[in-house]
Design a protein that fits this description.
The structure holds two protein chains of two kinds. By secondary structure, chain A is α/β, with parallel strands linked by helices. Chain A has 16 helices and 13 strands. In chain A, the strands form two sheets. Chain A has a seven-stranded parallel beta sheet, sandwiched between helices. Chain A has a six-stranded parallel beta sheet with strand order 10-9-8-11-12-13, with helices on both faces. Chain B is built from 18 helices and twelve strands. In chain B, α1 crosses α2 and α1 runs parallel beside α3. Chain B is globular and about 95 Å long. Classes of the chains: A alpha/beta, B alpha/beta. At the A-B interface, α10, α14 and α15 of A face α12 and α16 of B.
């Protein structure tokens, strides 16, 4: 079975959970020997792992015919793409895009991030997808998150193949209810055109059904999983303070993640104990407000902001921690607690996060219940048995949640969709 | 001749309230009054009152023929006294019919039998006294919380003078043996053991109203036929359950009470009698000793203690609690003693279980075992602080005990000495009376005078 996937991020250059999920999901799916995956991203860097799928960089797909030499193409895109593919794609240009701002290869430039002109990039991505869909051979289209829904729809219209969309988040999660109408329109349009919708949790599924008015029969839940830790990460020696406990929050410091509840809970804990430190790692639009809040509460000496953590740093930070906390107000899934539990760190998660549906060996609290949150932190830091239990059992539980199983589930959905189309 | 031993237990815990760690040291009241009142009245109205009324009716109708045994935990008794005195009134009525035997069980419904012998003895003894006081009969048979039993526990119970004990007819203990005989404790042959027939008991308490059960609906005739069909030599059929099985686990709408009510009549037709545990222990001989090296109970499929002490959290809570057992035993602060009873209740540990039993479990106010553990540990933290505040924490328990006994003895010594002083003073005044000159002196120095006189007197005595 051949799958054409549209995504926005792919490791190692990732900005959030979407990249991690895309990687794990494709890798899990690729365990099935007859599965061929083509994954489109806006801008590959050349160091992506292409052992189990093929990556097409949308910034290397021509939409305007340019007469270029093989060697020149090879020099430009050779690090991540076969030059022959460039020529094949060039044969499928479907309209005159000369008015657009293309480069010397006839390609559009992408930032691959979430820039201010995001809507323009989304539109460009969809234009390029038209070329890809005309050239590639595939059985099904799979779009990840709203940024790529227009591309998915375009590809479906061009090829007539069924479209499956994967909802990693909705705008209701990101905005705490103040939905951006443009984004909502794109999301709704994608869902309306999709033959099947996969959601990362039951929570998201209910949002899709109730807020986007989708037929429950075409919406299913496919929970995320985690990739096993690499040897390099497993080899990291945790650096722990002997007499201090470390409570860590790791993620974007935005409204969606509920950082202020963490600060308030930390304040309550620090009123009673002094051997606990708190870390809020990450960056985001609420970071300065949080620094100010911490200062107002007078706990800045025990509350730290190390900034955005990358790659290996994330695991160093996790391994040094005694408690991981994710007080998200609305989290479609939330892979990070699973990663923490892999490292043997007991986790506290909000009941409003999707991963709470599949995790049992962790403490669940309501995001607004700072008393319960403080109590859970205190309990984990003072009661050794609870800490040990959740550390060991949590790891066992998470190790059983694999992408391979997710891949099997997705395969089932693909087959069902192809049968019905 | 077959005989049925029907036994019901009455126990409800005192619910703990939501207690955060920042309350430690400031709030010493741990109980959810609203929930306690609500739950006990609900259980009383839906189960205890109708069930006891039925039992009384049965006793009146069948006279001496029908027999039943009941035990009640101290904590449940306290709650019933406050919120549902009607239940106690009915127990008195049932007692008045003369067909009901009351058994003893640990006052707190706790796990002290697994931790602290002294504590267990005190717990059991207290309930024995309470039953005597309340119902005028001294229990000769006892049951441990949730029928926990092991050889050691049996030995302690036998040592306390009990003739029999109820426990579970667990398959992993019995093996090929049948629970329909009388057994005895392998460490003390004087203690007879009555083993619960879990199949027949659970048919009523667990499955009665389950419409998916292949025996549904169960009628008294069918049930008695099963008992009659047992081999001739198997004579004792022990049917033990909680009283709230009638009404709570099996709703009244399932006509469970009519089923129970019909039992004596259909038993009579088949020549099956009813007996109390004491009657069985005195009339029948034990067939064999029972070896129980590891504690068993009537809970879950495993019939062991894993639902209270199965994970590390439960064990930590348990060990922490009983680490202050001796201190609590030494002190005489009434509030601490009371909290001690309530905190010991085994249900508190059950809330922390992480076992998957397949049955949905009521965890009360807690939504996970971790939540239950955290709340309990917070309360325990405060409780232990209070206990430690009574006496210096760095002092050895034995040392403390020795000091306390000296203090207590000092008290006695002082009072003994005082008595002696009084006696001597009396003698002195008697001796001084004939002397006429002292009568005119004022009364104030009189207090001082005898002392001087007494010292003088002792010296004179020696001379």
């Amino acid at each position: 079975m051949k799958v054409l996937m549209f995504g926005w991020e792919f490791p190692p250059h990732i900005l959030g959970g979407l990249g991690t999920a895309s990687y794990g999901l494709t890798k899990g799916l690729a365990q099935q020997s007859d599965m061929e995956i083509t994954f489109c991203i806006p801008k590959p860097w050349g160091d992506e792992d292409q052992s189990f799928l093929r990556i097409i960089g949308m910034n290397s797909v021509p939409i305007v015919w340019r007469d270029v030499q093989w060697d020149y193409v090879k020099g430009r895109v050779g690090s991540y793409m076969d030059p022959q593919l460039y020529y094949d794609l060039r044969d499928h240009i479907y309209a005159d895009f000369n008015y657009m701002n293309t480069n010397d290869l006839g390609c559009l430039e992408f930032s691959g991030r979430y820039p201010d002109n995001l809507h323009e990039e989304i539109n460009n991505y969809s234009i390029v997808a038209g070329v890809v869909a005309r050239q590639q051979q595939f059985d099904i289209i799979h779009s990840h998150d709203w940024l790529t829904y227009p591309a998915g729809i375009h590809a479906k219209q061009v090829s007539g193949k069924p479209l499956v969309i994967h909802v990693h988040a909705t705008d209701f999660d990101r905005s705490r209810g103040n939905v951006n109408p443009t984004v909502y329109a794109i999301e709704k349009n994608g869902m309306d055109h999709a033959d099947h919708i996969m959601c990362v949790s039951e929570l998201t599924r209910q949002t899709v059904i109730n807020k986007y008015f989708q037929d429950p029969r075409k919406v299913s839940t496919v929970h995320n999983a985690v990739s096993p830790l690499s040897d390099e990460i497993q080899a990291i020696v945790p650096q722990k303070f002997p007499h201090e406990k470390l409570v860590t929050f790791l993620g974007r410091i935005t409204m969606q993640k509920g950082p202020e509840y963490f600060v308030e809970a930390a304040n309550m804990v620090l009123q009673r104990t002094h051997n606990i430190r708190f870390v809020m790692a990450g960056s985001g639009d609420m970071m300065n407000a949080m620094i100010q809040l911490v200062a107002e509460r007078g706990i800045a000496d025990r509350f730290h902001f190390p900034g955005f953590q990358k790659g290996k740093q994330v695991y160093e930070c996790l391994k040094a921690s005694d408690v991981y906390i994710m007080p998200s107000v609305s989290e479609p899934f939330g892979i990070s607690p699973l990663e923490a539990m892999q490292c043997g760190v007991p986790s506290i998660i909000s009941k409003q996060s999707g991963c709470a549906e599949i995790l049992d060996k962790c403490i669940k609290v309501d995001y607004w219940d700072i008393h319960a949150m403080a109590d859970a932190i205190y309990s984990l830091c003072t009661n050794q048995s609870l800490y040990e239990y959740l550390k060991d059992e949590g790891k066992k539980e998470v190790d059983a949640i694999t992408w391979e199983k997710v891949g099997v589930k997705i395969r089932g959905i693909y087959e069902q969709v192809i049968r019905n189309s | 001749m077959k005989t049925i031993c029907l036994y019901f237990e009455i126990h409800q815990i005192i619910h703990l309230k939501r207690y955060r760690f920042f309350n430690i040291g400031t709030d010493h009241y741990y109980y959810d009054d609203y929930e306690n009142e609500r739950s006990i009245t609900e259980v009383a109205e839906r189960s205890y009152i109708p069930a006891l009324k039925t039992l009384i009716e049965m006793a009146r109708e069948h006279g001496d023929y029908f027999k039943v045994a009941i035990s009640i935990s101290g904590v449940a008794l306290e709650q019933l006294e406050i919120h549902a005195p009607m239940v106690i009134e009915l127990l008195h009525q049932l007692n008045g019919t003369g067909c009901c035997e009351f058994l003893a069980e640990p006052y707190s419904h706790g796990l002290s039998s697994l931790a602290n012998e002294e504590c267990f003895r005190a717990d059991l003894e207290r309930m024995r006294k309470k039953v005597r006081q309340l119902f005028g009969q001294t229990p000769k048979v006892c049951r441990n919380s949730s029928l926990i039993y092991s050889d050691e526990i049996g030995a302690i119970v036998a040592d306390m003078g009990f003739k029999g004990m109820l426990t579970e007819g667990a398959r992993h203990i019995l093996g090929w043996k049948s629970p329909h005989y009388l057994y005895h404790c392998n460490m003390n042959p004087n203690l007879k053991l009555l083993l619960r027939d879990y199949k027949l008991s659970d048919d009523i308490s667990l499955r009665f109203s389950n419409s998916e059960w292949n025996e549904y609906p169960l009628f008294a005739d069918t049930y008695m036929n099963w008992i009659e069909a047992l081999p001739e030599e198997e004579q004792v059929i022990n049917i033990f359950m909680e009283l709230c099985a009638l009404g709570i686990y099996q709703p009244l709408s399932s006509n469970i009470l009519d089923f129970i009510k019909a039992l004596p009549a259909v038993a009579k037709e088949r020549g099956i009698t009813f007996s109390t545990p004491t009657e069985l222990c005195t009339k029948l001989h034990s067939v064999a000793p029972l070896d129980v090296a590891y504690p068993m109970s009537w809970v879950d499929e495993e019939r062991d203690i894993s639902c209270w002490l199965g994970n590390v959290m439960q064990r930590e809570a348990f060990n922490k609690l009983y680490s202050v057992a001796e201190r609590v035993h030494l002190c005489d602060d009434r509030r601490i003693k009371q909290d001690w009873d309530y905190l010991q209740a085994s249900n508190n540990f059950r809330f922390m279980t992480t076992k998957h039993t397949g049955l949905t479990m009521n965890r009360g106010i807690y939504d996970s075992p971790y939540d239950a553990f955290t709340n309990y540990m917070n309360i325990l933290g405060d409780f232990i602080r209070r206990v430690n505040a009574l006496y210096p924490a760095d002092m050895d328990n034995e040392e403390l005990n020795a000091l306390l006994t000296t203090i207590r003895n000092q008290d006695e010594e002082i009072s003994a000495l005082k008595k002696e002083v009084e006696n001597l003073q009396m003698k002195l005044t008697k001796a001084e009376q004939p002397v006429p000159s002292t009568e005119e002196t004022a009364e104030k120095p009189a207090a001082k005078k005898p002392r001087k006189a007494s010292t003088r007197k002792t010296t004179t005595k020696k001379d």
